[in-house]
Amino acid sequence: MTTASPLYWRLSGFYFFYFAALGALVPYWSLYLKGEGFGAADIGELIAILMATKLVAPNVWGYIADHTGRRITLIRLASLLSLLIFAGVLLGSSYLWLALIMIGFSFFWNASLPQFEAITLSHLGDSTYRYSGIRLWGSIGFICTVAGLGLLLDSFGHRLIPIVLLALFALIWLSSLTVPDHAADVSTQAHEPLRQVLRRPSVLAVLLSCFLIQASHGPYYTFFTLYLEDYGYSRTSIGQLWALGVLAEIGVFLVMHRWLPRFGARRLLLVSVALTALRWLLIAGWADSLVVMLFAQTLHAASFGVYHAVSIHLIHQYFVGRNQGRGQALYSSLSFGAGGAVGSLAAGYLWTGIGPEWTYVVAAGVSALAFVVAFRGIRE
Question: Which of 53, 152, 279, 325 could pair with 106 in a Cys bridge, judged by C-beta atoms 3.0 to 4.6 Å apart?
Fold first, then answer.
């Protein structure tokens, strides 16, 4: 599939709008909640809800998709329902109301991406190494939103955030209507019982290391914007720092199709985890230095770009046939779901308990543990 292919642009368009929405949700939702009067613990809990539904939703939808083969139909339905439920944010801002909205919205929102990953990889066939060339458009969408919205918030305030999100959720749904399903007869695909796949040490090591890596991102995804505000950075500057991180991620996606065959998945994963620990230590100790923060943000190329591309590659190798959708769902639920929820929840309590800087030191320690798991458990 080349960039001249209409399918390339349809797949890329979905990633663009999905991650553009993420570029408004991840960096700025905590800012919206703070503007509505919530404290650090409440913010950590509400954001943890977004992550926690990934424990259930991707697996439920993955099971249905693997047994029906109608992935794109489920993606369209989930995208529409997430849009309609999130609109409830405009009707109230109490803790209980927002918690209920987050539960309902994220149950469908978190269902879409793992199944879309499976569709993309199925369309690529034997050329799965070209995945990063499509996925990079998600990173471009993230940059457009995170940089642009930062500028707008300095002028219009935090209540612009849900309006922007609703517009982007609508575009996600519209873009899903243009993507064809990858037809497959699920009854004839090669199949190995899922429990048998999960008994393999390498599979368990990959899933556990992914959980730990995403848990270490908890303070970053939940409080990085507020953290930099406390150090005197403007919202425009903060948006540009977020954008720099994703720009570095795009650079990695452009070369991963060369790096994977050359260096191997295991080696790349170990390097990415080590650099993730370094990133959190830099943010903990030198947040008042713009130069250090610029360098720390370029390490997003490792802490997310390399990590995610390698993980998708390994999951696609381990989970084949009728396990494909559930494999992507497990990766999403255990890493971005369980790992993200634990990381966000813990960050909310540690932030006021031991302080922001020490919270990032703890995150570096969790990354170091992920390195040990990957080093001992994963084999090529």
Answer: 53
**Cα 66 to Cα 330: distance, rounded to the nearest angstrom:** 13
pTM: 0.74
Q: pLDDT tens digits, residue range 1-21?
A: 555 577 888 899 999 999 999
2 DSSP assignment: -
Matching residue, tokens 């799965």? 128
- Report how far residue 89's alpha carbon sits from residue 335's, in angstroms, rounded to the nearest whole number: 27
The domain in which residue 27 lies consists of 7-183+192-377
- As for how many domains the chain has, the answer is 1
Q: Is residue 2 one of the residues assigned to a domain?
A: no
Instruction: Give the position of tokens 């048998």.
Output: 196
Cα separation, 243 vs 360, whole angstroms: 20
Q: How many residues belong to the chain? A: 380
The answer to whether 343 and 295 are in contact (CB under 8 A) is no
DSSP state of 304: I
